Structure formats: C-alpha cells, structure tokens
Amino acid sequence: MKKTYGVVIRKTGHTYTAYAPDFPDCVAAGRTAESTKKNLAMALRRQIKALMAEGKQVPEPAVTLRYVEVPEPPARKSA
User: Fold this and answer.
1) Per-residue model confidence as pLDDT tens digits over 22-46
2) What is the DSSP string of 11-66?
3) For the chain, what is the mean pLDDT?
4) What is the rounded distance in angstroms from the CA atom of residue 74 to the CA atom of residue 70?
5) At residue 70, does pLDDT exceed 70?
6) In sequence order, what are the beta bridge partners of 20?
C-alpha cells in the first residue's frame, strides 16, 4: 500500500537537499530537485522497512504544505 508523505526540497548552492518532516532523521541530497526527490523516496523506503523490521510503528502522513503570501515591506527611505 502506498502512502504519500510531504517533503521539503531546498536548493543549497549547486545541489539540493530534502527531508520529510514525518521522518525527522531521514534526509537526502542530489544534483537536481528530481534526483533528490528520488533519493529521498529510496531513503524513506529504507527507513520504513527498518521501522517495520524493529516492530516499530510507521508514521502516518501528517504534514500538509501550504504557501503563505507575505507582502514585501516598503522600501526604506534614505536619509
């Protein structure tokens, strides 16, 4: 059974990093956003497999992504 987890992918210089908030210790990196997403998916599968092997509970997806629009502050007046 497939589950869909929220992930955060962030550009860091010339590479990308990613993590899944539902799995705080699970991170990945890659040269592109897409390769990073694939790497994180593999890391999550390994993490879930390890949790199951240890008889631990696999977290249910609990993260929801929402964007918040923040207006740009007015320019400072020069003295």
Assistant:
1) 998 999 999 999 999 999 999 999 9
2) EETTEEEEEETTEEEEEEEESSHHHHHHHHHHHHHHHHHHHHHTTPPPPPP-----
3) 93
4) 12
5) yes
6) 23
If one counts every other C-beta atom within 10 angstroms of the C-beta of residue 20, the result is 22
pTM: 0.81
Calpha distance 32→15 (Å, rounded): 6
Q: In Å, how far are 27, 70, 71, 77, 79 from 74, measured between CA atoms? A: 37, 12, 9, 9, 15
Amino acid identity for residue 25 in this structure: D
Instruction: Please state, in angstroms and as integers, the Cα–Cα distance from residue 52 to each residue in 8, 11, 15, following that order.
Output: 24, 32, 31
